[in-house]
């Protein structure tokens, strides 16, 4: 670092040496200067090779040198920098700076004089007398090289001299915009020099720049000079022939090209957007313009002209990008980045005098400087001057400028962003201050008196005291700011305090703690723990008083929880595992999740009670009519889902910390609501016992009974039985279970998104296994029950007369099952028209089961009016095949395997009808003995089935056996 400062100081001395030599040789101190061979003016002389002693001797004698000045010895990088050849320029610049400061102290004069740039040339060099009188009152200037703006360095290698010259060009353009720019006449006195001119630009360059700016305005009616793209216009209007040598021209051109690149591409405030490719094109064109100087004159000039034309097409749109409310073309952001603008304005202020201040303000339009930026930069420049000179008046002037800076509440967001980039690099200074403080403490503790007055502290404890003191003061300031902000905003003070405290943590961990951690490796944990404690003291009364989810709770809890998580993250990320655990154990956790969870559970319970009441209401109002032809479910299930989804939406809008327990409670409540709804739907169904007619009394068949008139069902309508052809209770559960899956996926997706990470996955694995399983089981069971009820009602109620009462009467041959296919097909079509597709197979399966139950009822419990012979078994088998194929429907119905499995139980009974009475009696006798031993008969039937088949046999052998063995009476006549 010392070596870098030495090099920078050496470069500064050399630059000031050249300025001083140029001033002496071009002024009136030497009457005549004889140029070396090949040199036309001082611009052609390498002043680094001129001896200062020789020039000073000539000036004292007043005679011109008779020969070329001898070369100055080469100054190497030596620690001895106090020789005469480099100290004189330093004193000269010192006098100039002090003169500038003395002028600036009269800013409050009552009658300021307004000047233009042309007045710069009219400053009389009588001030040189005062300069000479002060040359010998020498003061040693302090080194201010470390006091620099914390801005990015220029990638193009722009030097301070380049900045000064460009700043002067900006000043000329600003003066031209107000009509104050003219080309100086040649008959002005040559001995009148402007001090600002000597610093910012030479006479010839000044004239060239003025002429170029005036030429650039030709033909641009209504356009202001300060909206020009200054470096581009100067490149187009100033040719190589206006320079005394090619080296000076190339240097000047390189500066303009660098300014274009730095101003438009490297540090832009306005984003490029779609013009990003143009930024790359601009760099290419800048390179080609620079390359043209190495070509032959004709070829190089042609390439330069073409490139300048293309450069204008690319650079102007970039410069006129609208931003911050500007109108395109009204403001020319030729130096778009504030990094370059501030550096340019700093160079202007370094040469500030009272009379020039108003002129400098005219550059605000070009550089985008505001009053806030001006006061900040001006205070910065004065502070640097104070560092070098030690003048208290300069420091007071800097303080006055700082007081003029508006408060942060009065600044716009863009202004705050720019001011943030002007911070000083003070980290090294802070680190050194800590070292001084630690060493000073150790030295003081060596004094016996002081050692007895205070307890000895270790370095770690001392750092903790520093951290504690600074954090407490910063937190106190935040509380004051929050009290002010809470009056103007609707946010709760604790929420604002949490947000501001998070900003304090971020600033603390990025700026101060890295330095303090060099002396205390757990300084970050100490700071975070203290901040956690200070905010917890403010938060605790609010937590204790929270009883419901109010707006204040919803505002404070998330902010406080976020702050706590940030502080825990700081501790865990900056400490070793063991140390982090120790600090975390000492934290008095806010337990926001616990308090918040309790409040959320109260809210969830109240919402679930509301859902239950709503379910009862919509069930009572349900008409069991389809919503539409496409939506065959009733309106009640839609209303239930609407209220459930509203509750879920409100649950996730609650921006408060939650645990998986609250989500589980929500799942259980919704699950219970759907179970209640499903029970209500099933309650609308009648009991199957009310549909299925009672089984006839078991009697022996006798011939006379076959003539008994069959029972005729009265055409009565049971009000307890819903009409399945007009109402669809089974469509409600199907809609519910379909949307239940979507609802569950939606809840988990939102939970995972809100509480992403490992905790969300763990909670899902623990809750998912029983989230909606209860309602799923109940709904599926309800669907099966409704489908079974629908089939049973169709066969045993709607088709009772042709099926249950009329089939196989008076004989199988006279009443075949095929006569029932048509009414079955009609009923089946009606059902398929009013059910949703996913339910089709389940409803048809229910009808198949009911049809087979009805067939078994007919052939086993058909009553005394039905009789079967072994010959009827073949007809029964044929009827069963007809029924089976009806439900298979050539592949359009139920799967054949499903139907076969259902028909198997009927086929076994039909086979028993094929046996002779004697075989059945013998098997019945053996079955009775085997059943006592836990076995079955040879025919594979139980005794009850065999008895029922014998009761329907039209022969005396079966009748006598049943009478003798089982005392079964004959049917009544």
Automatic annotation (TrEMBL):
Pfam families reported in the protein's UniProt record: TPR_PATROL1
Source organism: Phtheirospermum japonicum
Name by which UniProt lists this protein: Protein unc-13 homolog
Domain MHD2: 814-924
Positions of region (Disordered): 89-118
Coiled coil: none
Domain MHD1: 554-695
Compositional bias ranges of the Low complexity kind: 97-111
